[in-house]
Give the backbone structure.
Amino acid sequence: MKTLPETVQAYTRTKTFTEKSVPAKIRQDHQTAPGVWGLITVVSGEVRYEIPSAEETHILTPGNPGIVEPGISHRANPIGEASFFIEFYR
């Protein structure tokens, strides 16, 4: 998994999702717009973050965020009880 470039800045974030409120589109393969990075921050529990094209699966936890690269298909699914949010950078 890559790291956020030093040149990008946060411009918005989602509300905090739980295993009950996470939108279906986040659970399914999707991608950000060109030039938009994401930072998945887990508040509690664990989130499975998958990048199918790279055949990568990461278990995200508090203190271990996930980086979303622009235009790369990915999906995120809570494992049991969890809460997380996504910040967007450009």
